[in-house]
Design a protein that fits this description.
Helix content is 34%, strand content 10%. It is of the alpha/beta class. Helix 2 links the parallel strand 2 and strand 3.
Length: 239
Amino acid sequence: MINGVDSTNAPRAVILLSGGLDSATCVAIARDQGFEVHAISFRYGQRHNGELDRAAKQAQLMQVASHRIIDIDLAQLGGSALVDSSIAVPKSDHVDKIAGDIPVTYVPARNTIFLSYALAVAEVLGSRDIFIGVNALDYSGYPDCRPEFIDAFQTMARLATKAGVEDEQSLSIHTPLLHWTKAEIIQRGIELGVDYSQTLSCYDPQGAGEDARPCGQCDACLLRAKGFAENEIADPALS
C-alpha cells in the first residue's frame, strides 16, 4: 500500500521531479489520480545542486514508489546560464520586467532529453503514463514548454518504442499544469497537501545543498512570488 493506493493494482506513472514547485505539484496530482509514482530527477551539470536535494526530500515526503537520479552532463554542451557559470542569470526587481524572448536560462533540448529518459523508464516499468510539469502561461518563454512540443513528443513516443507499436493502449504525456497560472498551481498543490517549504524554484540560489536559498530576482523566483501573492499567502520556503 502506497499513499492509500493498492500498488499491486495501481497504474504506474513516471514523473519528472526537479525539486521545484511545479513538479512537486505534479507528483501530488498523479497520486490523487491513483497512480503509483515513479519519479526521476537529473544531475545534468546544473550550476547548483539545491534542487536535487529538494527533489529527494519531496520523493521522501510523498512516499513515491521509486526515485531515480540520472546523470547527464549537459554542461559539456553549454549554451545556457543554468549549465555555464560564465553566463549571468538574468535578474530584475519585478515580474513585469521579465523579457518576452527566449532567455539564456533555456537549456538546449533539455525537456526533449529528459522526456526521452522518462520514456525509456516508462517502457521498462510497463508504464503508459508520463507526467511533466510544463506550463504555457506563467513561464519563461521556453519552446519545450509549449503544447505543440508535448503533442509532437507524444506522437514520436508512440512510434519509437516497442510498447507504442505493440500495445493496444499508447503512452500518454500528462501535462496537468499546462494551462494553469502559477497561482492556480499553488492553490491546487495546497489542496493536495504539497509542502512547498521543501521546494526550490530558483535559477541562481545562494548556498548549496539543503542550505540553498532563492535569490528572489530571477524569472523563476519572480513568477513563484507572484503565484503566492495572488493566493494571499506567504511562500513557506522563505520563512
